[in-house]
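Issue: copy button drops trailing tokens. Both records pasted manually instead:
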Amino acid sequence: VKEMSLIRNTILECQVCGFHEPQSRCSPNPCYKGVSCMDSLQYPGYTCGPCPPGTTGNGTHCKDIDECELQPCYSPGACVNTMGGFSCKPCPPGLWGAPLAGTGLDYTKTHKQQCVDIDECVDLPDACASNSVCINTVVSSPLILPGDVSH
């Protein structure tokens, strides 16, 4: 046993053999892009850190999470899945809402895009002609009724 240990140590320290410095299993990095790698004594000789936000996997292999499945936007067709996150298309004409984009399922579960009706009769002073009745309709131009109404 002592002789085998001596032979093994001699081979490992042999500069001609090139074994004097153990090579890191993390060079080149076997983990997913941007994921940290740590040498390990257990197979396969390295451990990868967690996958980036908005992705899932074991650190070596990560895949994008489709946040659009949780429907964070005003309509399902308005959601654009991106690598690691999502973004919502702008609200349609006649509606107003802040843009929304985010990363990961936790964010998507707690943030939803809101598109509310713009009252053109109130918000647009010239929406209706003078001496007419302005009636706001959802998601469209105001309905203008002719008449002799003065305000």
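Record 2 (pasted manually too):
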Amino acid sequence: PKAAPTDVRIRVLNSTAIALTWTRVHLDTIQGQLKEYRAYFWRDSSLLKNLWVSKKRQFVSFPGDRNRGTVSRLFPYSNYKLEMVVTNGRGDGPRSETKEFPTPEGVPSSPRYLRIRQPNLEIINLEWDHPEHPNGIITGYTLRYQPFNGTRTGRTVVEHLSPNQTRFTLQRSDPISRYRFVLRARTQVGEGEALVEESPALLDE
């Protein structure tokens, strides 16, 4: 093809998807059969400082003679660049002008790990690591825990912890029970994926 799509417009739908519209090329510039419109895009940077990102180019195909489409599976809270082409049986035509757009914050992935240590019957020490994909500015952690003993469960306690906190010490109220811990990171959008761990059963002395 000899011409590129023009008037490429981007509307952000959510933290991981955008809607695209463009002006189609004249069919006499295609020099063959129009196969598809194609959007090339790559993550240029994260909006979080010092977070390394892969700038690998990806593309989404929109088969046929159309003028709109959706790009999804983007990373939240990032700067993206995008170019469009039209293709025929021989390959890509020239690229449109490069468009830049940011994606808004999303919810975080789960914390990388949650380690549980029981130095004695009175306390349980928790330690965790930040999420691999914060997807925004971490505003804190939510820790929910409840004791259980066989089929009996106690009431759930909720702790709201600060964003840089990675440790918590629980004073046990019941040395016989095990505890179930559910830990999530938060951004201003909401709570992310949960990491669930249970305290080990106490060994017989």
